[in-house]
Write a structure and sequence with these properties.
Elements: E1 2-10, H1 16-29, E2 32-37, H2 40-44, H3 47-51, E3 55-61, H4 67-79, E4 82-86, H5 87-91, H6 98-104, E5 106-110, E6 117-123, E7 137-141, E8 145-148, E9 153-160, E10 173-183, E11 186-191, H7 199-202, H8 204-226
Parallel strand pairs: 1-2, 1-3, 3-4, 4-11
Antiparallel strand pairs: 5-8, 6-7, 6-9, 9-10, 10-11
């Protein structure tokens, strides 16, 4: 049976317990055994245990993380364990930890207009099996502006600006909403939607994206094992940050 870890916590405004419960239900229905933890030291302190997982799902907004825990996650994902998350639960986690940002592919910087902004999510057709059959859809939530890794594979975008703020002096941009990337042998998926749990009910396409993204990320472990992939070519002892 495949194994997934969801760790929840940080700022309560993103309803981490509700979102974790939702994601756990999706994964259990797909045949995963899911552990939910609310203590980083309990679930991220042992790299050997992380290596046994197929998927890690962070639901932890802001807060701080011990650098050794980040290194453990980075090593496990590099070996093939999947990493998938949404909204502030993954790309607004641990703002001081640049290795976390490097691994996940982006970092929240603003949501002009706050909550309740209506906008369109434009699906990049043909970008991935994750988006197959999903058309553009409308969301009423926070409009997430991020700083992103240029190496990500963009699956969906949204046009900025909608709400007036200082950034409108610049040209319009298509901000990534969903993406994939690799971290060593591991697959990483992110969806910026999910300010609160009910977004997934109000915009069913967002739940489909999240479900498919988690399963896609988890499948990387199987491929790494079947191909006997190692992390030797990724290892580097230089100071990275």
């Amino acid at each position: 049976m495949r194994k997934a870890l969801i760790f929840q916590g940080g700022w309560d405004g993103h309803q981490p317990k509700l979102v974790s419960k939702r994601f756990a239900g999706i994964l259990e229905e797909a045949g995963f055994r899911v552990e939910i933890s609310d203590r980083l030291e309990d679930c991220l302190g042992d790299v050997d245990q992380l290596m046994k997982l197929d998927l890690i799902v962070p639901c932890w907004t802001m807060g701080e993380i011990d650098g050794k825990y980040t290194k453990n996650v980075a090593k496990a994902v590099g070996a093939g364990v999947g990493l998938a998350g949404c909204h502030g639960g993954m790309c607004d986690s641990f703002r001081k930890d640049v290795e976390w940002q490097f691994m996940t592919g982006g970092q929240w910087v603003s949501h002009p207009g706050g909550d309740g902004v209506e906008y369109t999510v434009n699906v990049v057709q043909g970008s991935s099996s994750i988006t197959e059959g999903i058309e553009d859809f409308t969301v009423c939530s926070e409009h997430y502006y991020l700083h992103v890794d240029p190496s990500i594979e963009v699956l969906a975008t949204t046009r900025f600006p909608i709400v007036n703020y200082y950034h409108i002096s610049n040209k319009p941009v298509d901000m990534p909403v969903a993406w994939t990337k690799m971290w060593g042998n591991g697959r990483v998926f992110y969806l910026s939607l999910g300010h609160q749990d009910d977004v997934f009910d109000k915009s069913p396409s967002s739940q489909i994206l999240m479900e498919r993204g988690m399963l896609w990320a988890a499948d990387g472990k199987r491929i790494a094992v079947e191909k006997g992939l190692t992390t030797e070519k990724f290892e580097n002892t230089a100071k990275m940050y």
